[in-house]
């Protein structure tokens, strides 16, 4: 299975970014989790079809209204499914 881990930096906390990421992930049929980092960034891990993951990354690069995305770091990897649905966590879930 295709997986992507992404760290989004900028004005991304306190603007609904995690809820936006969850909605986009669900809309695209992905599974994963998104959480706030202590350094002010938002991090997400998602899994699914490669094309859907690419669309997810495009959405995160834009972010919701009120966000100001400055940098996006992406790491791709392969492996078995790790998630059920798409969830929002307050902090790193593992």
Automatic annotation (TrEMBL):
GO molecular function: acylphosphatase activity
The Acylphosphatase-like domain, residue ranges: 3-90
PROSITE patterns, A to Z: ACYLPHOSPHATASE_1, ACYLPHOSPHATASE_3
This protein's UniProt keywords: Hydrolase
Active site: 18, 36
Family matches, as InterPro entries: Acylphosphatase, Acylphosphatase-like_dom, Acylphosphatase-like_dom_sf, Acylphosphatase_CS
Enzyme Commission designation: 3.6.1.7
One Pfam entry name: Acylphosphatase
Keyword Hydrolase: yes
Highest taxon, organism lineage: Bacteria
Reaction catalysed by this enzyme: an acyl phosphate + H2O = a carboxylate + phosphate + H(+)
Family: Belongs to the acylphosphatase family.
UniProt-listed PANTHER family: ACYLPHOSPHATASE
Protein name as catalogued: acylphosphatase
UniProt source species: Eiseniibacteriota bacterium
């Amino acid at each position: 299975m295709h997986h992507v881990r992404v760290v989004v930096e900028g004005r991304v906390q306190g603007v609904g970014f995690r809820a936006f990421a969850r909605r986009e992930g669900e809309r695209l049929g992905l599974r994963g989790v998104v959480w706030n980092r202590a350094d002010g960034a938002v991090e997400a891990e998602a899994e699914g079809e490669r094309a859907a993951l690419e669309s997810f990354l495009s959405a995160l690069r834009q972010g919701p209204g009120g966000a100001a995305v400055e940098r996006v770091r992406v790491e791709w990897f392969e492996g078995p499914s790790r998630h059920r649905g798409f969830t929002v966590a307050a902090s790193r879930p593992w």
